[in-house]
Amino acid sequence: MSEQEAQPEPLLSVRGLKTWFPIRQGLLRRVVGHVRAVDGVDLDIHPGRTLALVGESGCGKTTVGRSILRLTPPTAGQVLYRGHDLATITESEMQPLRRKLQMVFQDPMTSLDPRMRVRDLLEEGLRAFGIGATASERLDRAAEALRRVQLHPDHLTRFPHEFSGGQRQRIGIARALIVEPELLICDEAVSALDVSIQAQVLNLLGDLQAELGVAYLFITHDLSVVRHLGGDVAVMYLGRIVETGPTADVFAGPLHPYTRGLLGSILSADPDVPRTQAKVLGDVPSPADPPPGCHFHTRCSEAWAPCRTIAPRALVRGRLTVRCHLYDEAVSRPPERPSPPAS
Amino acid sequence: MSALLEVEGLTTTFPAGSERVPVLRDISFQLHAGRCLALVGESGSGKSMTALSILRLVPRPGRVEAGSVRLDGRELTKLSVPDMRRVRGREVAMIFQEPMTSLNPVVSVGQQVVEAIELHEKVSQKAARERTLDLFRRVGIPDPEARFHAFPHQLSGGLKQRVMIAMALSVRPRVLLADEPTTALDVTVQAQILELLRELQAESGAAILLITHDFGVVNQLADDIAVMYAGRIVETGQRADVLRGALHPYTQGLLRALPGRAQSGERLLEIPGRMPSPKDVPAGCPFAPRCPEATPACPAWSPRFTEVGGRKVACLMRESRGELG
């Protein structure tokens, strides 16, 4: 992609998304606070392209995916898709759109009904959206969907437990793709798989994107997978996106101290790379009680006074967008700290 | 140098119908004091079963069928049950993947470490408490006096794993079995715990048997590597040698399948098919059905090691070509 090429219109845009979970206490189950799982997230997913959403456990990345599809209702914000705001439309308006927005989960054993044969699992979506006029047409589509994920049409009559983890994940992918979606949300879709099987599924997802032009929102904690996927990446920490941009640019020159620490924590299997030194100390704080200001300031080696009180705003620096006071000229600096480089 | 832990011909079976199916076949390795050996493999390769077999903790109806496990020359397979229990607590300690399920939820973490110390040594309550606080400091638990009274659920995953490590070290073990010690942790915390294990090993001189599926973790901690497939060791060698130039086609395939090694967007190398379950392990070389180099002779060849320069590989193609050194 050339530097000047204008970004096409996003397929799906998330603006100011908030998903809060009430904390209830006492006999009357009164709401005494909220877990701010997602606390003001902006994302753009482009047609036929991959956006990796990466972060550690509890950062809210899974809730973002679920909120986009309204599997978990968002508290505030917009999810803009083809002129609709998915956050506010009615369920009957949402229903036909679900065909175009599909999801693959981490554990295919718990997301596939164990009592249904593969054929029925695949045809369920076709029937729900009225695809395929006749039973034989639906069967043809189901067989085709299996072929696409490199399984054999003989597998149509089998049950989920007869398959290995990798094969079940292929069935999950086939089931999502059979209704021809424009966006596939993959929530830790390869995390439970062994290395050799993970490679098979990652290659398959790459082939399917090239063939079908489907966009992926790839939710993962695995930075090696993110780098491999390419496309764009958004780094999430305690409910907020701290940095986003093309994956190659973020890996080549991360701006946010958290991104730098995260990338510095990747364990290389190359014996010629020096052993990793822990870059970010401590643990992720509880999302029920996130630190004020920049959520990362408690673990950040570069934090100073404003980081503890003021939430950083989004700043565009080159091809990256970062939320960090280090890059904000408007934030007063301690005497020893130079002004940020002009962008 | 004689080995601290010497495992030879370890074979463990489980019943399947009327016969017994081996889940470990002829496992042999040596672990030297002050070194870390990584058993690496995918799920079902037998790496955790190896640890359980060494500790004589194989769940029924499984049993160790044959083989010898010597700790400093002492045969563990022949020890009485109470003697073996003492070995497990005092000389060989374990760290597991899931600290939450290994800690007692209703006893404070400090008290749990105190009890572990008192179980194995005659010390006063006060001395055990002092040593626990000292251990908490050593494993990097901030504010140890306050954390002493915390219950497991009040601690983060990283802190719980630090408590587990403190407990394992409390008996000053000679061998530490670490089964996926960082797999359940976030990446930033994982880097911290691996650094801690490295420091503690350098300090205590304990030997570590590291069980993991992650070559990144192996590269951080291990001195030596044994790669397992379908209940067998297929390749052993020093860390850098194996990672730089694996000899067995399975190890080569695993390393090429890692997403971190390929260029972004490049296809990953796939190993077709999957690991067989113990009852389906084929005769001959167990990897032959998935192996890109397999010949008609491989399914008829019973695996044995070819050894050159401290490295061992169980592959007919390497044996016949003498491709080593």
What topology does this entry show?
The complex is a heterodimer of chains A (343) and B (325).
Chain A lengths: L11 E14 L4 E16 L4 E5 L6 H8 L7 E6 L2 E2 L5 H8 L2 E4 L3 H4 L6 H11 L6 H14 L16 H13 L5 E5 L7 H18 L2 E6 L2 H7 L2 E6 L2 E7 H6 L4 H8 L50 E3 L2 E3 L21
Parallel strand pairs in A: 3-8, 3-9, 6-7, 7-8
Antiparallel strand pairs in A: 1-2, 1-4, 4-5, 9-10, 10-12, 11-12
Helix pairs in contact in A: 4-5, 4-6, 5-6
Chain B lengths: L4 E12 L2 E13 L4 E5 L6 H8 L8 E9 L2 E2 L5 H11 E4 L3 H4 L6 H12 L4 H14 L5 H5 L8 H14 L4 E5 L7 H18 L2 E6 L2 H7 L2 E6 L2 E7 H6 L4 H9 L48 E3 L2 E3 L2 H6 L4
In short:
With 343 residues, chain A is an alpha/beta fold.
Low-confidence stretches of chain B: none
* Shape call of chain B: globular
Number of strands of chain B: 12
Q: Give the assembly state of these chains.
A: heterodimer
Secondary-structure arrangement, i.e. CATH architecture of the domain at 12-100 and 180-293 in chain A: 3-Layer(aba) Sandwich
* Structure class of chain B: alpha/beta
Descriptive keywords:
heterodimer, A: 343 residues, alpha/beta, Rossmann fold, eight-stranded mixed beta sheet, four-stranded antiparallel beta sheet, B: 325 residues, 12 helices, 12 strands, 35% helix, 23% strand, globular
How would you portray this structure in words?
The complex is a heterodimer of chains A (343) and B (325). Chain A is 28% helix and 22% strand. Chain A is of the alpha/beta class. Chain A has a domain of 203 residues: P-loop containing nucleotide triphosphate hydrolases (Rossmann fold, 3-Layer(aba) Sandwich), CATH 3.40.50. Chain A has an eight-stranded mixed β-sheet, with helices on both faces. Chain A has a four-stranded antiparallel β-sheet with strand order 2-1-4-5. In chain A, strand 9 and strand 10 form a beta hairpin. In chain A, helix 5 crosses helix 6. Chain A is globular, with a radius of gyration of 22 Å. Chain A starts with 11 loop residues before the first strand and ends in a 21-residue tail after the last strand. The model of chain A has no long low-confidence stretch (mean pLDDT 91). By secondary structure, chain B is of the alpha/beta class. Chain B has one domain: P-loop containing nucleotide triphosphate hydrolases (Rossmann fold). Chain B contains twelve helices and twelve strands. The model of chain B has no long low-confidence stretch (mean pLDDT 90). Chains A and B meet through helix 7, helix 8, helix 9 and helix 10 of A and helix 7, helix 8, helix 9, helix 10 and helix 11 of B.
